[in-house]
Amino acid sequence: MQPSDVKALLESRVDGCEFHIQGEGCNFQVVAVGEMFADLTPVKRQQVIYSALSEEIASGALHAISIKTYTPAQWQVAAENPGA
Predict the structure, then answer these.
(1) pLDDT, tens digit, for every residue of 12-62?
(2) How crowded is residue 75: how many other Cβ atoms within 10 Å of its Cβ?
(3) Strand-by-strand arrangement of the 27-34 sheet
(4) 39/73 Cα distance (integer angstroms)
(5) Fewest CB within 10 A of the end CB: N or C in the chain?
(6) How confident is the model at residue 83 (pLDDT cuts 50, 70, 90)?
C-alpha cells in the first residue's frame, strides 16, 4: 500500500477529518485532525482510526500503524512546535 491508499481509505470511512500519512509497504504513521476528537478520550480517538482500518489490519495489508490525533486547535499548536 501507498500513503495515498491509506489516506483514501480513511477519507472514505471517517467524516470530518484531515489526514496526513507517511510510510510505505505495510507500516504507516497516521496523523488525523478533526473536531470530532474534541470530546473523545485518547483511547477512543485511536479506536476511531483503528476501526476504520480494521479490514486492512486483519488481512495484513497494514501491519504497523502509529496514530496521532488532534483537534484543529491542537494541530495548530503542534504544527507550530514540531518537537512538542
Answers:
(1) 999 999 999 999 888 999 999 999 999 999 999 999 999 999 999 999 889
(2) 19
(3) 17-24, 27-34, 64-70
(4) 13
(5) C
(6) low
Cell 497494514 locates to: 62
Residue found under cell 491542537: 74
SS3 of 45, please?
helix
Residue appearing with cell numbers 499548536: 77
Sequence-ordered alpha helix ranges (H) in 24-68: 42-52, 54-59
Using pLDDT thresholds of 50, 70 and 90, give the confidence band for residue 78. Answer: confident
CA–CA distance, 78 with 55 (Å, rounded to integer): 30
This prediction's pTM: 0.88
- What letter represents residue 57's amino acid? I
